[in-house]
Structure to design on (803 residues):
């Protein structure tokens, strides 16, 4: 009991320290985006780009800046009084406010925070199955190749992986849409709907994304397992007379989990962001297509918000990775 | 002078890279221990076959990097005016392929346009498929098209085969002379794969390439081999022009950020302490921003800069080129962190070794220790990173162009080809050739690069020995 409580306290202290460590990183991200979006590229430039080259008058630029709240000084408002000198600035209202998850409004006038909440679900509906199924499929293929290692099956498996890796991700999507949806009419070509009705819409993007990931994924896991299989404990296990299948599943797979976790856990939080390309091709109203639309419409407020959100989720992923290490490998201590 | 050479930014960097590679190769060839891993690469059939294919791409890319502007016909000799259009040695080489525009889409090897038009025949207007201006223009009727294509392909194959046999003969004679065996003995060794280098693969791949080239040359002079695009440009020509863009992105991106990755990575691992903390902080910040978003944000900003300073660039090619270079820089900025982290770990390990301690005890300066003891021992990691990153970057270009933050829309690239044609599959009948050509070229380059990279990694990574 006491040991468990101590473990919990350790865990908590560790979490707290990691969270504290995350703050300077987020501040760094924030400063970087601020520099990119407001200093290198002044609000005047943005206004000019948005308004188009023909209609640019100083008044129009001024109006655009007022509409978007970019008419304030960047860092220090000497016209204001007291603390407003710092708060009534672009930095405070547009960059620092992101720490409170207040993202302001996009160019279409909608609240970005609301939009993000609404679009996380559809993104997750695609990204989560892709992640889980992809992981299972890739590990299965990798284990198969390792089981038949140093045979022609393994050799051609690796060559097949390299071939699959060499095909552009766009090809999988375009070919999948053309053959499965457009030619054979097996599944709808694009669209989305909530609940169980949405299933047919989800199948194709999930299928395409999983297939597109097999090449790189299976090969990567194969290298991990092959490295693991050369170690002494595997030889010991074999010499005990364990069957190859048992060695693979009970020993190699378990020990291979650490490098697998490094790659896998860190992406779990970023699943919320969805996939830019898949969502936009399949018309999924998630965060990925939101981001792409924003980039194409040059809606800087949305891009800025997504950059910040992305890095928050990434840092959460890093912390989760560390925690999962100690869960998989008791030797790894939280310090 | 009828032409004025134009050196774009990326041209200069490409040729600097070429010189660098040649100097490095010369240096390596003089040291036995540096040459050894390359010998391992040279003995792998897949790597050598891939290297041959890659070299074809590289030659086309290099030819396409020799830019010039033609003198306008009407200008005076003492005060010449040059065309605004920037051409390359490659354009001059392919000749009519560049200039033979049709009206709009036409299928591969077609002699008629894709869409029906009103055509006047002896005063009667009818709606039919008009003949192409250039593709199959020498044919009398549709019936003679297939035999003509077959004949041309056969001639091309025959010439390719003849050239291949000739080259093989020269190679056999030279090699037999060099290794001082009889020609028959050399051929026997070649046939059994006992040459010490993958002779059969090299000859096989070379023959395939020559056959392909023969067919392409004979067909492309009379047809549009991959059809034409929306504005009637030859798709084969565009695909070939895109090679340079792909190569530039694949190589320069890693190259421009190598100094950063190497210096910061090694510094963090070697000096530790606050230097390490600061560098780790910087790359964690950069890493935590989703790559595509950081690239998108930076490209949008470069775009704003280019558009608000139009007078900095004297022609469209220079503007597109600066944008390409900016894209390389930006993509490099997001990808150097991986290599830096790798180098940091390795430098951390190396700096505790006895010989580094000994060097320190002798009072050798930090710069000297790093350049003499640390850097040479992490160089293989740098090399592996360069070849491994290449294919990923080529593929990324297509995705970025789709997102709208890729290369300039006026620049030929596979990404732009795909982006422009992806909606045309929905037409009836489908316009597939543009997508097909772009994907096929990209696939060939990336596959060759991946296979070559595997060979290089296996030869240079000391850990790979135990994995086989």
């Amino acid at each position: 009991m006491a040991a468990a409580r101590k473990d919990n306290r350790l865990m908590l202290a560790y979490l707290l320290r990691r969270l504290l460590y995350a703050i300077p990183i987020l501040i760094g991200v924030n400063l970087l985006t601020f520099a990119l979006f407001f200093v290198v590229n002044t609000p005047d430039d943005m206004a000019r780009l948005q308004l188009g080259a023909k209609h640019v008058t100083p008044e129009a630029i001024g109006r655009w800046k007022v509409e978007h709240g970019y008419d304030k000084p960047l860092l220090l408002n000497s016209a204001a009084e007291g603390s407003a000198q710092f708060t009534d600035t672009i930095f405070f209202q547009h960059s620092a406010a992101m720490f409170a998850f207040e993202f302001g409004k996009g160019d279409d006038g909608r609240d970005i925070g609301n939009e993000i909440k609404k679009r996380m679900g559809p993104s997750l509906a695609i990204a989560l199955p892709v992640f889980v199924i992809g992981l299972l499929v890739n590990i299965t293929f990798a284990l198969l190749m390792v089981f038949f290692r140093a045979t022609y099956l393994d050799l051609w498996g690796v060559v097949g992986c390299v071939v699959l890796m060499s095909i552009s991700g766009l090809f999988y999507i375009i070919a999948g849409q053309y053959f499965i949806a457009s030619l054979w009419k097996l599944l709808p070509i694009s669209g989305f709907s909530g609940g169980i009705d949405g299933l047919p819409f989800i199948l194709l993007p999930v299928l395409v994304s999983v297939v597109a990931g097999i090449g790189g994924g299976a090969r990567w896991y194969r290298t991990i397992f092959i490295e693991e299989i050369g170690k002494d404990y595997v030889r010991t296990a074999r010499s005990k007379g364990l069957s190859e299948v048992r060695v693979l599943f009970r020993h190699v797979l378990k020990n291979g989990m650490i490098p697998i976790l490094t790659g896998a856990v860190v992406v779990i939080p970023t699943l919320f962001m969805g996939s830019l390309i898949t969502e936009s091709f399949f018309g999924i109203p998630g965060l990925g297509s939101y981001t792409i639309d924003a980039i194409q419409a040059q809606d800087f407020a949305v891009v800025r918000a997504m950059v910040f959100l992305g890095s928050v989720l990434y840092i959460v992923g890093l912390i989760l990775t560390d925690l999962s290490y100690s869960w998989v490998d008791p030797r790894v201590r939280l310090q | 002078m009828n032409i004025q050479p134009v050196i774009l930014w990326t041209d200069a960097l490409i040729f600097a890279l070429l010189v660098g590679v040649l100097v490095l190769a010369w240096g390596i060839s003089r040291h036995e221990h540096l040459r050894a891993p390359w010998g391992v690469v040279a003995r792998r059939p897949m790597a050598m076959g891939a290297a041959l294919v890659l070299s074809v791409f590289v030659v086309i890319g290099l030819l396409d990097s020799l830019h010039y502007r033609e003198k306008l016909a009407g200008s005076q000799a003492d005060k010449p005016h040059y065309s605004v259009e920037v051409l390359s040695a490659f354009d001059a080489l392919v000749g009519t392929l560049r200039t033979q525009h049709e009206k709009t889409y036409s299928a591969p090897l077609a002699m008629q346009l894709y869409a029906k038009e009103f055509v006047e025949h002896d005063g009667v207007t009818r709606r039919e498929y008009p003949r192409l201006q250039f593709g199959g223009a020498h044919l009398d009727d549709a019936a003679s098209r297939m035999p003509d294509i077959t004949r041309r392909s056969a001639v091309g194959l025959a010439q390719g085969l003849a050239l291949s046999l000739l080259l093989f003969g020269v190679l056999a004679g030279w090699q037999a002379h060099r290794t001082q065996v009889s020609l028959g003995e050399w051929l026997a060794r070649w046939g059994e794969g006992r040459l010490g280098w993958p002779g059969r693969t090299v000859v096989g791949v070379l023959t395939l390439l020559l056959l392909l080239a023969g067919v392409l040359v004979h067909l492309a002079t009379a047809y549009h081999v991959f059809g034409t695009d929306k504005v009637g440009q030859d798709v084969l020509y565009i695909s070939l022009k895109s090679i340079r863009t792909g190569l530039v992105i694949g190589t320069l991106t890693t190259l421009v950020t190598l100094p950063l990755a190497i210096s910061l990575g090694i510094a963090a691992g070697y000096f530790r302490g606050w230097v390490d903390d600061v560098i780790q902080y910087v790359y964690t910040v950069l890493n935590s921003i989703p790559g595509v978003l950081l690239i998108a944000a930076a490209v949008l900003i470069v775009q704003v800069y280019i558009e608000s300073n139009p007078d900095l660039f004297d022609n469209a090619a220079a503007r597109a080129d600066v944008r390409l270079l900016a894209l390389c820089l930006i993509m490099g900025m997001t990808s150097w962190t991986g290599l830096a982290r790798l180098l940091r770990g390795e430098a951390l390990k190396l700096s505790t070794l006895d010989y580094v301690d000994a060097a320190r005890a002798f009072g050798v300066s930090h710069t000297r220790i790093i350049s003499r003891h640390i850097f040479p021992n992490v160089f293989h990691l740098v090399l592996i990173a360069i070849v491994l990153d290449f294919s990923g970057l080529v593929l990324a270009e297509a995705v970025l162009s789709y997102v709208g933050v890729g290369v300039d829309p006026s620049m030929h690239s596979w990404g732009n080809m795909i982006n422009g044609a992806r909606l045309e599959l929905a037409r009836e009948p489908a316009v597939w050739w543009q997508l097909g050509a772009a994907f096929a070229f990209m696939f060939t380059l990336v596959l060759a690069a991946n296979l070559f990279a595997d060979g290089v990694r296996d030869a240079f990574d000391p850990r790979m020995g135990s994995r086989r």
About this structure: Chain B touches chain A through 47 residues (CB under 8 Å). Chain B has a mean pLDDT of 86. The CA atoms of residues 320 and 411 of chain B lie 6 Å apart.
